[in-house]
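Format notes (please read before filing issues)

Several people have asked whether sequences and structure tokens are stored in separate files. They are not. Every record keeps both together, in the order shown below: the sequence lines, then the token lines. Line labels are part of the format and must not be stripped during preprocessing.
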Amino acid sequence: MNFISPAYAQAAAAAPGGQMDLITSVVPLLAVVVIMYFLVLRPQQQRAKESQNMQKNVRRGDVVTTSGGLIGKVTKTVDDSEVEVEIAANTRVRLLRSGIADVRSKSEPVKD
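Then the structure lines:
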């Protein structure tokens, strides 16, 4: 009577090479993660940083586009988080800096 089946004996004999199987299955996964970082995550972080820098540097006279699609000219910076934008003649609105999607044309620096 044989207590060890042939399939179990073959699996036990292949056990020392199991580490190579683990390495060959993990390396492609790590390569995909690295490629995703450089193709997706890193450019997205750079765009977010540029957007925050643009919103922080908006000054009076800049023509901006809001995230809602309105185009207007910055007339006054209220504080660090808000600006006043003229969207039509004698029509001014207060806008959060985070609502600025694009700066279309920059103004000249204020002369001292």
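For reference, the curators noted about this record: The mean pLDDT is 84. The helical segments are 6-13, 18-56.
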